[in-house]
Write a structure and sequence with these properties.
Shape: globular
Strand order of the largest sheet: 1-2-3
CATH architecture: Alpha-Beta Complex
Distance between the termini: 24 Å
Number of helices: 5
Number of strands: 3
Bound molecules: FE2/S2 (inorganic) cluster
Order of helices and strands: HEEEHHHH
Structural class: alpha+beta
Helix content: 25-40%
Largest sheet: 3 strands, antiparallel
Length: 146
């Protein structure tokens, strides 16, 4: 049911953790299943993503897609990071079962939320970046794992 790459990223997720004093942090929830994802971005003065970490209280597909998404955005500029859509992440994982496609949105939306946070804090406009839809406020208590 799951591809080898999905299993690999689920069992050995890359970039799990958090970044202290991150340039941007985004937390989103998936209304469908209640799962939660938080992304941390470390962005340098040239707007290049130097480091990225994630934490999730989410399913295996959410872990795998986030792990792959962090690998894909690392080293990109904030503008280029917008090309890392859930579709691109799924392709990089050789596909996801149809019922799990919504899980891959969590990774994309969390990255967008973190980019939005970065842009707001630094007074930067990122062309094409939409305000995150289901950003969960930082002051809300969320349970975290991973
Ligand atoms: Fe919730 Fe996958 S079932 S993110």
């Amino acid at each position: 049911m799951y591809t080898e790459k999905v299993m690999d990223h689920f069992q050995h997720p890359r970039n799990v953790g958090e970044i202290e004093n991150a340039s941007g942090v985004g937390t989103v929830g998936n209304a469908k299943c209640g799962d939660i994802m938080r992304m941390y971005l470390d962005i340098d003065d040239n707007q290049v993503i130097q480091d990225v970490k994630f934490k999730t209280f989410g399913c295996g597909a959410a872990v795998a897609t986030s792990s792959m998404a962090t690998e894909l955005v690392k080293g990109l500029t904030v503008q280029e990071a917008l090309t890392v859509t859930n579709k691109a992440v799924m392709e990089a994982l050789d596909g996801l079962p149809p019922v799990k496609v919504h899980c891959s949105l969590l990774a994309e939306e969390a990255i967008h939320a973190a980019l939005w946070d970065y842009a707001e804090k630094h007074g930067i406009h990122i062309e094409g970046l939409q305000k995150p839809k289901n950003d969960i406020h930082e002051d809300e208590e969320v349970e975290e794992e991973y």
